[in-house]
Amino acid sequence: MLTVLIESLVTLLFICFPQQEPLGEYWGTAEEESKYYKMVDVPLPTELAVEAGSFEVMPDKKQLAIATRRGDIFLVDGIFQKHPEPVFKKYASGLDEIFGMAYKNDAFHITQQTEVTRILDTNNDGRADQFDTLSDRWGFRHYHEFSFGSKPDAEGNIWVALCLSESYHSKAPFRGWCLKITPDGRTIPVCSGIRSPCGIGPNEHGVMFYAESQGPWNGSCSLKVLQPGGFMGHPVSFNSYELAPEMGQPPTVPNTPSRLEVERKRVKELVPYAVVFPYKRMGRSISGFMVDRTGGKFGPFENQIFIGDFSLGVVMRATTERVNGVWQGACYPFREGFDTGLLAVQFTPNGNLIAGGTNRGWPVRGPKAYAIQRLDWTGITPFEIKTITATVEGFKIAFTKPVDPKIASVAANYQLETFTHIYRQGYGSPEVDQTTPVATSAVVSQDHMTVDLKVDNRVQGHVHDFRLPAIRSSTGEKLVHADAYYTLNEIPRE
Questions:
Q1: Which domain range does residue 424 map to?
Q2: Last residue within a domain, chosen from 355, 377, 399
Q3: Taking the model in full, what pTM does it have?
Q4: Any idea what the CATH number is for the domain that residue 146 is in?
Q5: What is the C-alpha to C-alpha distance for residues 259 and 277, in angstroms, rounded to an integer?
Q6: Rounded to whole angstroms, how far apart are CA atoms 431 and 425?
């Protein structure tokens, strides 16, 4: 009881005095990154506070819809131009923190705090005049009970990830759950155990994932698969199983303190983190994400996940794969230097990446209260770690440019460490149980684009931290980012 009281006081102090929380170090690569991905500021009207919470490209491919935390929807022309001169038109207002938006069948489908809403302009005057509730099966009793909605899946369903009441409580129905809303408004419970989501959508393989924040039962931020019938790790949401009899009985409550790798063997429904984002080194509050489907217009990272971070104002990359039936993968630094906390990202018809958000509520690194910015690929390919995948004997590392084969074939040039987190109800976790695997051989492919790395002493359930400062391209370039992090839930059997 005393431990819970102390943790509650610490959380309250953080909320009341957020400016005292250190944000972490810069990557220090913003100047070099700008050579490859130019950051373009989108001018915002001085009379409007545009705290972007979600984006949608309209069917004409000329307009961008922007939905905000303040409950407005704007239709914006001119934002895709090389030098944007946006013109904002208000389409709807009076909504509540819109963190999910799509346009289909001549209507917006938005996710706000208390419901999924279909919004229409029936008289074609450019303003919404019909608001239909598709689902409001969940409750709302606390400002921290954010709701994040996906764009429609292949069947037209919107998936909604519901934040808990604060970090330790589920004060309203289905708080801490994912629900699936069908086109006709049926509400289908998917899974429990969510803490504080800040993004939801398909991974590069079309499977629904969500972005989870560091906190109770979550040692660091992570991407997790929304596995039907699964348990995402935070047991306080078990009180809503009585509202979802089709889900059966609640899972076994995990032991605490423990390790996730231990508990997922004991609690069969427990879903491990697919990609862990090491705290502060790779974000503090990961947020909206989207897969690059631009066909190469955004550079060499086609079919990869691009994900923002609210606190640090960075965009990162991630890749996922399914090994032995379990999702896992890697994250990689990409671009820092945004002006505010990022909540949403959106690829444009031109193959650029729009990112925006606000600094409201928690400390952020950027200097502005709100901003929208765009990343344009300059056409110059950076030398980067493109992907890391697990193999039977180690890992395969792909690069964006050919490597120097003499350097890349030296196993000692691949430095690895591993760690995990304490799986506990306390807030966050230090990195624990560190080990040092050893790369024993490095075989460079004939085209010099990949390296098969044989690694001794990998640890199942650990994050594997790759550090490659010695690797060079065939023309002598250093890696723009020499670090990457692979979450090894399973070691491939074959």
A1: 385-488
A2: 377
A3: 0.94
A4: 2.120.10.30
A5: 17
A6: 16
